[in-house]
Design goal:
heterodimer; A: Rossmann fold; B: 290 residues; mainly alpha; ABC transporter involved in vitamin B12 uptake, BtuC; two-stranded antiparallel sheet; 11 helices; binds adenosine-5'-triphosphate; binds magnesium ion
């Protein structure tokens, strides 16, 4: 894998609290430009908290530490400004606007686009990725199937032409064939120059497309390395990839 | 007789529809009715009155000033009072709107007294136009037209503009709106401003009909509330249709059954809807986000 030396996103000793619970302690990491970086970890490890912290969704967090994006500090910025600076987010549970149509959802995704032309271009690109969304454009988003809603959530996040895309468990609840498709799309998105930071439970699949990998455990970063190192890491294998492959072919 | 009744119903219904729309717009954001809606509009109507009588400005200036004031009052109410509440429950929010309405009512009583004042208006409630067998006052015609046009504009705004769509998104899920780059806090403030302006248009059309005093919007608020319940608190279009329907039903009831009990109709409608179709005639049941 060719490595890009530029660091797009950098976290330095980040600490996030949920009330009296320290959900992230002393997390430092870098996301190289043009890479797919995957974050693994058990339920409750703090993966979603990490993405929410980056996007500034949590009131008053991070409590300590710095986050910079393209060399600019974003850890005290309002979420909408962070988005405007080029980060998009597909949150846990998709959070599409179910009463709005597919097209209106995408339009909200393009909120920070400056003009109609760039919105139109983004829309064409999203429709190339997800032809199905084009067919369903005037359907209420709440009536889409779970898989279709996931496509919409990813499409919506692409509408503002991000440089960094945060994805929280995009494969959750999808049929195996769709899971593969989602990972294919994530690779394509990366190949088009968008850097991806991905939270996944589906470790095997995620590491197969990822360039870099991180493991969170109880709010602490315990492993960081290239994706192939993580695949070879026995501990990671045991903890996050289930039992070693069964003798059945 | 029927066309005449329908015309009166439509005119009254226009006011109810405006109030219902104003209520629903903020209801969708906060999930509680803004009980201060009526008195915010009443105070704004007094602002217009002050300009017209004390400062002797023209109608356009006075009404414009009232609408600007209404907008700022709506935004201010959200930004300075509602937003500062810490993790408010629905009951807390309702109490805040009730408290605000008491304050506004008290203020209006202190500043302008309880006298019923003639409210100057470009067209009159007594000047009648005839359409065949129907006679209708120029004020009613103006009410129907202005309310209709305003509501069409509001719907077009919500449906076709980027900000309008973002506002709907914010109503459904403010956090999801924010992570798409929508400045959700500002948008919520704006929602209250727009709602307050719509209510104030209703007040400016009501004042010339029934004279101006601090109780100006009591009836309209309750009827607007009934209309919104009838049509569906979650659907702006439904609430507006509910407003027209309530106006017509009320006038039919008054004409054919009993004038004395005309005002009971709204209450009966609330009871029947809540018994049999709590989401309203045009509303959908849908799960609330958790
Ligand atoms: N809003 C909140 N208030 C209080 N505690 C929270 C909140 N959100 C998360 N937590 C706690 O913080 C810890 C990390 O949660 P987080 O959602 O980040 O985990 P996760 O790694 O995304 O888990 P999962 O894989 O199940 O999505 C958990 O112990 C969780 O209970
Ligand atoms: Mg999570």
């Amino acid at each position: 894998m060719d490595k890009h030396p530029e660091v797009l996103l950098e976290l330095n000793a980040v600490e996030t609290w949920h009330g009296s619970l320290r959900a992230l302690s002393d997390v430092s990491l870098t996301v190289p430009e043009g890479s797919i970086t995957v974050i693994l970890g058990n339920n409750g490890a703090g993966k979603s908290t990490l993405l929410n912290t980056i996007l500034g969704v949590l009131e008053g967090q991070p409590k300590n530490g710095q986050i910079s994006f393209q060399g600019t500090r974003i850890d005290r910025m309002a979420t909408e400004r962070i988005v405007r600076s080029g980060i998009s987010y597909v949150p846990e549970g998709r959070r599409i606007f179910s009463e709005l149509t597919v097209w209106e959802n995408l339009k909200v995704g393009a909120y920070v686009q400056k003009d109609q032309l760039s919105t139109k271009k983004a829309l064409e690109r999203v429709c190339d990725f997800f032809p199905l969304l084009a067919e369903r454009q005037s359907q209420a988003a709440g009536t889409l199937s779970g898989g279709e809603q996931q496509m919409l959530a990813i499409g919506r996040a692409l509408m503002n032409g991000p440089r960094l895309l945060l994805l929280d468990e995009p494969s959750l609840g999808l049929a195996p064939i769709l899971v593969r498709q989602v990972f294919d799309i994530i690779s394509q998105i990366r190949d088009e120059g968008v850097t991806v930071l991905l939270v996944e439970q589906n470790a095997r699949m995620a590491l197969a497309v990822a360039d870099e990998g991180l493991v969170l455990d109880s709010g602490e970063l315990v492993v960081a390395g290239s994706a192939s190192d993580l695949v070879d890491n026995a501990e990671v294998e045991e903890l996050y990839m289930g039992a070693p492959s069964l003798p059945i072919k | 007789m029927l066309p005449q009744v329908l015309a009166s119903g439509l005119s009254a219904g226009s006011i109810y529809a405006l109030m219902a729309l104003a209520l629903v717009i903020t209801y969708k954001t906060t999930e509680v009715p803004n009980f201060a809606q009526g008195d915010m509009a009443m105070v704004s109507a007094f602002i217009a009155y002050m300009f017209l009588t004390d400062f002797e400005t023209g109608f356009i200036f006075a009404f414009g000033a009232a609408l600007v004031f209404a907008f700022l009052l709506g935004v201010g109410f959200e930004v300075l009072l509602l937003r500062r509440m810490r993790k408010p429950t629905h009951l807390n929010l309702i109490i805040m709107t009730l408290g605000f309405t008491l304050a506004l009512f008290g203020f209006a009583g202190w500043k302008w007294g309880a006298d019923q004042r003639q409210f100057p208006f470009p067209v009159s409630a007594n000047e009648v136009i005839r359409f065949g067998s129907v006679s209708i006052s120029t004020l009613s015609v103006a009410t129907i037209l202005i309310a209709g046009i305003l509501m069409l504009l509001v719907f077009a705004f919500f449906r076709f503009t980027k900000l309008g769509v973002a506002m709907q998104a914010t109503q459904q899920d403010p956090i999801a709106a924010r992570i798409n780059g929508v400045p959700a806090r500002a948008v919520v403030g704006l929602t209250f401003g727009i709602s307050s302006v719509i209510g104030t248009v209703a007040a400016l059309l009501t004042a010339p009909l029934i004279t101006l005093d601090p109780t100006l919007m009591w009836d309209a608020l309750l009827k607007g509330f009934a209309a919104a319940v009838l049509g569906g608190l979650n659907t702006p279009v439904g609430a507006v249709l509910g407003g027209y329907l309530l106006g017509v039903i009320e006038n039919l009831f008054g004409a054919y059954i009993s004038v004395e009990f005309k005002s009971v109709v709204a209450f009966l409608i609330i009871v029947i809807v809540l018994w049999f179709r709590p989401s309203g005639l045009f509303g959908r049941h849908h799960e609330r986000k958790v």
